[in-house]
Write a structure and sequence with these properties.
The protein contains 8 helices and 10 strands. With 218 residues, it is α/β, with parallel strands linked by helices. It has one domain: Class I glutamine amidotransferase (GATase) domain (Rossmann fold), CATH 3.40.50. The strands form 2 sheets. It has a 7-stranded mixed beta sheet with strand order 3-2-4-5-1-8-9. It has a 3-stranded mixed beta sheet with strand order 6-7-10, with no helix packed on it. The longest helix is centred in the first third of the chain and has 13 residues. The relative contact order is 0.19.
Length: 218
């Protein structure tokens, strides 16, 4: 299984080069299929410039075929067929719980796991979180979402036995600092890697590589 967990996509040449090496094809031949369902549930008051910037980084760095595969528009067989002709399945972020629920409702979680044997799966922000292990600290859910852990309808896919904290110490998230995560994750039983928008984690058949520097570990 080859996964790329990032905050904001191809923000640095180092991330681009690491993903190209993982795919093992010339950069200009790499095909990317974009899963972009998580942003639709964001408030109309939330600015969406970030989404356009992130997608533009894909276009800027890769000249192979780029496709959007809308999980709400196609049946699961057609989705799987379209994704067979790609090198990277790129899952954009947005609302954290939207993706896990949608994936499991339509059976995309099983398709994604099957395709991960031959494709690179790259997620950014919530699109990365959904691939990892669900946080098991109740204090985290109460503080961030005003929900008890047992009230969460659908949890992440758990393709790996860790997860990430994206956008760590970004200017609009400074209150979510080291002291904060030490408090809300004190009962969590596995590693959470805090990464900034210029970092990524490569999971290559159980081997971890940190791109852009070592993450903070909680």
């Amino acid at each position: 299984m080859k996964l790329v967990l990032a905050s904001q996509g191809f923000t640095t040449e180092e991330i681009v080069d690491a993903v190209v090496n993982l795919v093992k094809k010339p950069k200009d031949e790499i095909k990317i299929s974009i899963i972009n369902e998580a942003y639709v549930d964001l408030s109309e008051n939330k600015d969406k410039h970030w989404l356009i910037r992130e997608l533009s980084l894909i276009e800027r760095n890769f000249k192979g075929k780029i496709d959007f595969v809308n999980l709400r528009a196609y049946g699961i067989s057609e989705i799987e067929e379209r994704l067979k002709d790609t090198d990277i399945i790129y899952i954009v972020g947005g609302k954290q719980f939207v993706l896990a629920k949608l994936f499991k409702e339509i059976g995309f979680d099983s398709v994604l796991k099957k395709l991960s044997k031959e494709k690179v799966i790259m997620g950014t922000s919530a699109g990365a979180i959904v691939l990892g292990k669900p946080v098991d600290s109740n204090e985290y859910y109460l503080d961030r979402y005003n929900l008890n852990k047992n009230d969460i309808e659908v949890h992440n896919l758990g393709f790996v036995d860790f997860n990430i904290i994206p956008h760590y110490l970004r200017k609009d998230r400074l209150k979510y600092n080291e002291e904060y995560y030490k408090r809300v994750l004190k009962d969590n039983t596995f590693k959470m890697y805090a990464i900034n928008d210029n970092q990524a984690i490569i999971y290559n058949d159980s081997e971890l590589n940190f791109i852009g520097g070592e993450p903070i570990i909680f």
